Amino acid sequence: MRQVLADITRSNSGSEQYLVGRAIQRCDVLGDAVLHLFCRESQLPAVNLSVANTTIVSDSANHYFIQQKISDVLSHLLQHGVQEVEVYTFHAVVFKLQDKFRSSDGTAAAQIHPWSQLSVPGFATTGPRAISPTTSTRHWPVDFMPVDEALKILSKALASQNERVRMTDLRALLTYQDDRFRKSAPGAGAPGLISMLVHQAEDAGVLSVDRSDMTNPFLRLLKGGAGLETRAHSADGKRLSSPPASTPMAGPPSSRRTSAGPTSRHGMASVTATRRDADGKSRSQHFIDVLRSRELGPFSKIRQTLYDSLEEVMLGAPILLGSLLTDVVEMTRSKSSGIEYPWRRVRNFLIQLLSREIVLLDESGDPTPPTFSTLTRKIVRLREHWRLDFEGSLLTAIIEGAGDVCLADTPPLAGALYLNRSTDHESKIHECIQRLLLRGRVTTGTAPWYRLALSTPPHAAPSAVEFAST
């Protein structure tokens, strides 16, 4: 008989019953699964459900104690012949148990997942930090903007992307199209405004919502919605302008990066497919060396997994900064089974990113860098657009170290950061640079090379004004 272990000991207050409901639904989907619940004493009233196999821990119990409790239950189940066990948790240390409990052929005897990976077909998501698939009962605030106009702006924002968009990235894309969506604008900060817009768009057939990740769904523009984009106009009747495809930069800045081939009609030398520096290294390798000299990875194969782990750790209740650093690295390691990495360097890479871009916010909403004095401070949430800002921080380090980065460097930049020079990955580079320009972190130089230059030191903390505008 299959077993489901649901650990809610680090869930956000108010989400307990919702998470247990999802676990019960998961048991129903599996058909004959038995549920085991792990919760704290103070969570029992909020759960408000009777689960026969419940392990209750004190409110002061740390994550290692909880790990041991889950380990004890797993040991008991496996000793009694149970072969299929699923564990859902917010604690990164629990993921270590996947290596501890393995069958004779080396396969994991228990599948341990973050709560974000619990997908239940047909489950009506009404919990915190999620979008309900049902029609919104709240009315769109017409005083803010006519809904038809808002849908056109939304369509244009989605059409500007070559791939599906995360819900948490939508406001930035909307703001890029129309400043009225900036949080500080009148009416734009109303609770649930973006969710209401998504509901309206889904009902109108403008977009589809992929809820495989209930906590941060994917949005995709539908073909019918693209028609709205082509007719999109601003409030004064003028055609909405498209975002610039890239910074208007031109050819390579030095002869060591050009071919001896024909020149363009502007007199600039054509760029060869593979440009190399004077020492024979490719531009991509040169950029990687710049990052490594600054202890900035780039750990291209696991960096996105590291970001995912940070996001998943922050889905739970507030966590001490010191514990956050440990949990994120441990969760990343558990997801990278079989891949050997210098995990202490990965941890230092994470610290460097969190120091260069101060995206952690404490209980007072203050930006919190990782220092000895902040290790015991509780972190509540992440700043908006933090993933894009982390990638931008790597680019500013390259710009600072290389000194001559221009538009022609897009392919090697994509190769250095993503080990992939596809159009999609080049678009990611453009998106990161546009964000840096928008924040005033970089500027474009003068003709003829239009090199990028830093306008502020890349490690400087964002100002209070910048935090208010993100």
* N to C succession of SSEs: EHEHEHEHEHEHHEEHHHEHHEEHHHEEH
What's the multimeric state?
single chain
Helix and strand composition category:
alpha/beta
Order of strands across the widest beta sheet? 3-2-1-4-5
Poorly predicted regions are 121-138, 229-274, 458-470
Helix content: 25-40%
Form type: globular
How much β-strand is present in the residues?
Answer: 5-15%
| Rg calculated over all Cα atoms | 25 Å
Cα distance spanning the termini = 49 Å
Report mean pLDDT, rounded to a whole number: 78
User: What's the story with the biggest beta sheet?
Assistant: 5 strands, parallel
Please report the total strand number as a whole number: 13
- The DSSP helix count reads 16
Pick out its properties:
alpha/beta; five-stranded parallel β-sheet
